[in-house]
C-alpha cells in the first residue's frame, strides 16, 4: 500500500474526530491551547492505537471483531450523541464539561472504531502497521486541533444548538458506520 493511499485513509478516518472537535471547541467557554492539545491528543492517540490493536488482534481472533465492530461503534456514538443532546437542554452549569476525561475517552473510542477495522484490513493485506499508525495519528491530531479552534471561532453563531448538532453528528456517524457495513 502506498503512502498516498495511507494518507487518504488517514484523512477519512480523521473526519469523525474533526467533527467532534468542532462541536467540543464550540462549547468550551474559555478555550486555551492546552484544551486543544488535550482534545487532539485523545483523538490522535486513539486513532493511532486502534488500527494497531486491530492489526494485532486480527492475527488472533480473525473476523469476529470485524463482524461486530460496526455495532459497537454505533452503540457508543448513539449513547454519546443522545447524551450530548440531552445535556444541551439542561439549565445551569451542571452539564458535562467537554474536557471531561471520561467523555473524551468515550468520544475517542467511538470515533476510532473504524480505525480498528482499518487495522484488521491492513493485517489482511499484510501491510506493515507502524507507518500507517504514525500517519493516522498525526493527521487526526492536526485535524482535531484545528477543529477545536474552528468550533471556538464559529460556535457563537449557533450558541446552544452546537451541542445538539454535535450529538446529531455523532448519531449520523454511527448510522453511517452501520449502513456502510451492511451495504458493502
Can you describe this structure?
With 184 residues, the protein is an all-alpha fold. It has helices at 3-27, 33-61, 64-88, 101-124, 130-158, 161-183. It has one domain (3-183). The protein has six helices and no strands. Helix 1 (3-27) runs antiparallel to helix 4 (101-124) and helix 1 (3-27) runs antiparallel to helix 6 (161-183). The model has no long low-confidence stretch (mean pLDDT 82).
Q: How many structurally independent domains?
A: 1
Gap between N and C termini, in Å?
A: 21 Å
Q: How many strands, which pairing sense, and closed or not: the largest β-sheet?
A: none
Low-confidence stretches: none
- For the secondary structure, the number of strands is 0
Helix content: over 70%
H/E order of the elements?
HHHHHH
Number of helices: 6
Q: What's the mean pLDDT score?
A: 82
Radius of gyration: 16 Å
The dominant shape is: globular
Quick overview:
It is built from six helices and no strands.
Protein topology:
Elements: H1 3-27, H2 33-61, H3 64-88, H4 101-124, H5 130-158, H6 161-183
Provide the descriptors you would attach to this structure in a database record:
184 residues; mainly alpha; 0% strand
